[in-house]
Amino acid sequence: MSDTVTMDQIVSLCKRRGFVFQSSEIYGGQAGAWDYGPNGIELKNRIAQFWWKEMTQLHDNIVGLDAAILMHPRVWEASGHVENFTDPLVDCKKCKTRFRADQIPEENLKTKTCPECGGELTDVRKFNLMFKTNIGPVEDGSGLIYLRPETAQGIYVNFKNVLQSNRMKVPFGIAQIGKAFRNEIVTKNFIFRSCEFEQMEMQFFVKPGTDEEWFDYWREQRWNYYRKMGIRMDKLRWHRHGPEELAFYAKDAYDIEYEFPMGFKELEGVHNRTNYDLTRHQQFSGKDLQYIDQDNGNERYLPYVIETSAGLTRELLMVLCDAYEEQKVADKGNEDDYRTVLHFNPIFAPVTVAVLPLMKKDGLAELAQDIRSELKEDFVTDYDQSGAIGRRYRRQDEIGTPYCVTIDYQSKEDHTVTLRDRDSMDQIRVPRDKLSLAIREKMKSYKRV
Ligand code: GAP
């Protein structure tokens, strides 16, 4: 068994098995953008559903929102993004390569020499990461609009709407999943950092003074979320922001980091954003955003915000890296000696059950199709009748299908089928009329070995 996975292995599997493709590949590709294939979109949707259930259904005081990507440009002035959402950049005058100034050796910055070709570097410039576009028919700058670089602001500007329409009481939260866009200069490491990506963010509004308690609560909740996902917990760690990393409005911030093939990197942030955002939106919009606490003598205040901010596309990469294994399975010296297997928690697997007739002939294919139709009602299924059965199992292992149902000659006789477990490769015989139940029970009791 090999515990280490390289990014090349993940990229290759993703393309080969329809998880992730390069955007606009037939035109040479578009840097910083990725397309999610048939298996990728299933996996992404399942992670999003898991997060959504965890954050809304399982919390009485959190509701959802889906705000527009295009927002009033003043939003980004109020949030500080127009002024502060920048990377320090330098360009090489000779080879034209662009670097983030904080990611090249200090010596090169001091001597202004390019780390690639030794050419002369420009002075450090601030480069804003927001994508600008134009709304309306005139392109004279009056229709300037930004693609949102985070989903959070859509929540802040709807704070009063949600508060009033749903009669919420502080403390309460608003959750949102959606696209965000950043003009990232360094987009290596596959989908880890891209220009177009998805976030899963929750802003929890609390009474000032109770923020530290809620901050601890949400740190614990978010840590347990990954345990519940079935991620290997020794691959996760906390990183607390030091004074130089802390955003100017943040009181405290922690990242949850995962050990990707390129090392421990940020997966999600838990931030105490104080009442900075609501204060600024109140100031810039001229609208009163204060909460009136009717249970406490109509006390008025601007709530503090505890934010949990995770990347959906980054979580998808984590789930793939965490599941991937090239496993030695037999010593027969034939091609089946090794298999590539994705040990997905079954709730995330793009296909839950594959139905495989041992042979196409003698009515086995028809029987298998019939059984598949029954299973379709409860599970995402696949059907495969081509090639040797061993190869078909390997194909399913590679996309992480947790269960394979095989229909053989005995099935015709006694109405039983074999149910194969992806991880152990054990097979048991199950009566056809108990199949759905057996799969559901296996899913419920799933534990990664
Ligand atoms: N609202 C706070 C916020 O946006 P962030 O740390 O900039 O905070 C939160 O982003 C999460 O979004 C990150 O932890 C990461 O998972 C994801 N993310 C940020 N930039 C990304 C990018 N360029 N590509 C993919 N995911 C990204």
Please outline what is shown here.
With 449 residues, this protein is an alpha+beta fold. Helices cover 31% and strands 27% of the residues.
Task: Summarize this structure as a short list of keywords or feature phrases.
binds glycyl-adenosine-5'-phosphate, single chain, five-stranded mixed sheet, 23 strands, alpha+beta, globular, 449 residues
Describe this structure in words.
The longest helix has 20 residues, at 38-57. The chain has helices spanning 7-16, 38-57, 73-78, 81-84, 106-111, 152-157, 159-165, 211-229, 276-285, 312-323, 364-376, 389-398, 409-414, 435-444; strands spanning 20-22, 34-36, 62-64, 86-91, 98-100, 125-128, 132-134, 144-146, 172-181, 196-206, 236-240, 252-260, 263-272, 291-293, 299-301, 304-311, 324-328, 338-342, 353-357, 381-383, 403-407, 416-421, 427-431. The chain has 449 residues and is α+β, with helices and mostly antiparallel strands. Helix content is 31%, strand content 27%. Strands 3-9-10-16-13-12-11 form a seven-stranded mixed beta sheet, with helices on both faces. A five-stranded mixed beta sheet has the order 20-19-21-22-23, sandwiched between helices. A three-stranded antiparallel beta sheet has the order 5-4-6. Helix 2 packs across helix 10 (312-323). A hairpin with a 6-residue loop joins strand 4 (86-91) and strand 5 (98-100). Residues 150, 152, 182, 184, 193-194, 197, 199, 201, 266-269, 307, 309-311, 313-314 line the site of glycyl-adenosine-5'-phosphate. Residues 150, 152, 182, 184, 193-194, 197, 199, 201, 266-269, 307, 309-311, 313-314 line the site of glycyl-adenosine-5'-phosphate (GAP).
